[in-house]
Design a protein that fits this description.
The protein is mainly alpha-helical. The chain has a single domain, classed as Skp domain (Protein Binding, DinI Protein, Chain A). It is 77% helix and 6% strand. It has a 3-stranded parallel β-sheet, with helices on one face. Helix 3 runs antiparallel to helix 4 and helix 4 crosses helix 5.
């Protein structure tokens, strides 16, 4: 019985090693491919323009709020308690508006990124799938992944860039 279990264990080891060797695994530097794609460069530029505009809008509102705060602080001793309370309420409302603007800008940015990067991601995934099938790769792993422990197989980065027509 003991010999049978040892024999079974040995057979399982040989089978599993054989299966592991039969699998073709390649690595891919996804970020290098993405950064070389002209579509991504254009999307990044468009998003930067959008973000800069939103930040300028928020800064303008914040600067106006700072100016009011400075003015109200200087005039506070000369005003009545009722006027100061109204001014304080106004400043709080302005602060809430700025926070809402920042929140909306973040949501708008996320939506714009999702829309801009969806076709790029699809194009990359289609190219990876085509190259993997043509090369017989069963797995293509991102070489930048923190979970990636060993890189010794073929690298599909050049083939995917070639499929996309980029350098």
């Amino acid at each position: 019985m003991k010999k049978l279990s040892v024999l079974f264990a040995a057979v399982m080891m040989v089978v599993s090693v054989g299966m592991a060797k039969a699998q073709k695994i390649a690595t891919l530097d996804v970020m290098a491919v993405l950064n070389a794609m002209p579509e991504k460069k254009k999307a990044d530029a468009d998003i930067k323009v959008f973000l800069d505009a939103k930040q300028a809008e928020i800064k303008k509102k914040a600067d106006a709020g700072q100016a009011k705060l400075k003015q109200y602080s200087e005039e506070a001793p000369k005003k009545t308690a009722e006027e100061n309370k109204a001014r304080e309420t106004e400043l709080q409302k302005l602060q809430e508006e700025i926070a809402q603007m920042q929140e909306k800008a973040q949501k708008d940015l996320q939506g714009k990124q999702d829309i801009a990067f969806a076709p790029i991601e699809k194009k990359l995934n289609d190219a990876i799938e085509k190259v993997a099938k043509a090369s017989g790769f069963e797995f293509v792993m991102d070489s930048n992944s923190s979970a990636f422990v060993y890189k010794g197989g073929a690298d599909a980065t050049a083939a995917v860039k070639k499929e996309l027509g980029i350098q």
